[in-house]
Specification:
Blueprint (H helix, E strand, L loop, with lengths): L5 E2 L9 E3 L23 H7 L2 H8 L5 E3 L2 H10 L4 E3 L1 H7 L4 E6 L10 H13 L4 E6 L3 H13 L2 E7 H6 L1 H9 L3 E5 L5 H9 L7 H13 L4 E3 L6 H20 L6 E5 L4 H15 L6 E7 L4 H4 L1 E6 L8 E6 L21 H8 L4 E5 L1 H15 L5 H20 L4 E6 L7 H8 L10 H8 L6
Parallel strand pairs: 5-15, 6-7, 6-9, 7-8, 10-11, 10-15, 11-14
Antiparallel strand pairs: 1-4, 2-3, 4-5, 12-13
Helix pairs in contact: 1-2, 3-5, 5-6, 6-8, 9-10, 11-12, 15-16
The structure holds pyridoxal-5'-phosphate.
Pyridoxal-5'-phosphate binds next to helix 12 and helix 16.
């Protein structure tokens, strides 16, 4: 069958349910734990921080499919389906026998896949009758997506933005404000934890873990507010399964059988969402695939971290999660893929990796930007630095096929555009990009501070 350059599903073919891969996992991800008592976090405890229905989704290891509410489906229809693109131009330029496909999630104003979960979380907050939500944002993609989602449902949105990004990415900030969000640089003097961190580290430019602590404190201390998170959590992977479901439907329609499925991994949500239904088939013994998570060498959570219970935030106010982690105090060296700088990893992805069901690789920043540049010049899309990690490994795999003559089908997730990352591209173009890799001592020192559980 002739495969078009771009495969778009019909509206009637779009997923009506999310897929919950935990239902098919023989070893379930370990439950979240109360940071004080070290007991399994209960629905009531989680509901004090998160919206009730989202807390239920967080704990649901049994329902394979969960209905996507009609309001969310109609929002999805504004920017979905995302195209599944056959990279004919790239295949030709590489002169590889491999077939290359990518699922492009950057075709919405927020510029990334994060909108898929933002709209779901805003919906449940509105349904619960809340006034608003709080969150953190690092590179700004999540904050932007949530601002759009909150504007749609007329919810108040308070974003704690890592100070260095707040200053370096003024345009991201202005997009959020245009959608009505209130953006505060973190650490700030508006929370106890922010004031404490400022006193301890005057002049700090902030971190994601610290912004999470501030957002959680703001949510639990403000009537009618809850905290929402853009990655890592089971509920977020559930919402992101829309990526994988659409991809699988498009593949099945055109009889495309991917051999290798690649995604970049920060907190694991796009990767977890893309691979979920394919992993389901693998777990049920219906098909086999090679899955590859790609992370920055500067923040090598899966490839060099430890599988253990750890804090999700610097302020240690969130529940503990069992995951691959570099330690909640790990501060990755400045890397331009802001969305991949988190110290931990989704507990679902962590469990799948731990059980040998997927692989992980780490890439150095300069080689990632080389891949981004090559991709932009051949396929036309300016990729986000995060997404370019997946491009790097897809190119490597395609070149390997050229050597061996294998006609593999390679599929990767292209999570977003790089329009707001031009400072990073400027550094690359000026030859000023560094490739710092943490030493074993750096990582050991950080892991030594894991909580005793
Ligand atoms: C946030 C982000 C990522 C990483 O987050 P995951 O939860 O690991 O998916 C990747 N790509 C883009 C464009 C992002 O904005």
């Amino acid at each position: 069958m002739e495969i078009p350059y771009k495969i778009y599903l019909e509206e009637s073919e779009l997923p009506k349910q999310w897929y919950n891969v935990r239902a098919d996992m023989p070893n379930k991800p370990a439950p979240l734990m109360n940071p004080g008592t070290h007991e399994t976090a209960t629905l009531d405890e989680l509901s004090a921080v998160f919206c009730r229905e989202l807390a239920e989704q967080e704990l649901d290891d049994t329902n394979r499919f969960i209905d996507i509410p009609e309001e969310i489906q109609s929002f999805y229809r504004m920017y979905r389906p995302a195209p599944l693109v056959r990279a004919y131009c790239l295949e030709k330029a590489l002169d590889t026998p491999a077939k290359i496909y990518y699922k492009f999630e950057g075709n919405n104003t927020s510029g990334s896949h994060k909108l898929n979960s933002a709209i779901a979380q805003a919906y449940y907050a509105k349904k619960q009758g809340l006034k608003g939500v709080t969150t953190e944002t690092g590179a700004g993609q999540w904050g932007t997506a949530l601002s759009m989602a909150c504007a749609y449902f007329d919810l108040d949105c308070r974003v704690y933005m890592v100070k260095v990004s707040y200053e370096q990415k003024p345009f991201r900030r202005e997009v959020m404000r245009t959608y009505g969000a209130n953006v505060t640089p973190s650490p700030s003097d508006t929370t106890n934890v922010g004031r404490k961190i400022l006193a301890e580290f005057p002049g700090t430019t902030g971190s994601l873990g610290c912004a999470i602590s501030e957002a959680v404190e703001a949510a639990v201390s403000t009537e009618g507010y809850r905290y929402v998170l853009g990655s890592v959590l089971n509920q977020v992977l559930l919402h992101q399964s829309v990526i994988g479901l659409e991809t699988m439907a498009a593949c099945d329609k055109y009889d495309i059988k991917p051999d290798v499925i690649i995604g970049c991994a920060g907190g694991g949500s796009n990767l977890g969402g893309l691979i979920a239904p394919f992993m389901g088939r693998k777990l049920r013994g219906e098909a086999d695939y090679q899955f590859i998570a790609v992370e920055p060498a500067s923040c090598p959570t899966l490839t060099r971290g430890k599988f253990a219970y750890d804090f999700c935030d610097t302020g240690k106010v969130c529940p503990l999660a069992k995951m691959y982690t570099l330690g909640s105090g790990f501060i990755p060296s400045p890397n331009h893929a802001g969305g991949l700088r988190y110290h931990g990893m989704s507990s679902t992805v962590s469990q799948l990796y731990h059980d040998g069901l997927m692989e992980a690789r780490s890439c150095e920043q300069t080689s990632v930007f080389q891949a981004a540049e090559q991709f932009a010049r051949i396929e036309g899309i300016l990729p986000a630095p995060e997404s370019s990690h997946a491009i790097r490994v897809a190119l490597d795999e395609a070149m390997r096929c050229k050597e061996t003559g294998e006609e593999k089908t390679i599929l990767f997730g292209l999570t977003g555009t790089g329009y707001f990352d031009m400072v990073a591209y400027q550094k690359y173009n000026d030859g000023e990009m560094s490739d710092y890799i943490p030493t074993d001592e750096d990582i050991a020192a950080s892991l030594a501070k894991l909580p005793e559980v």
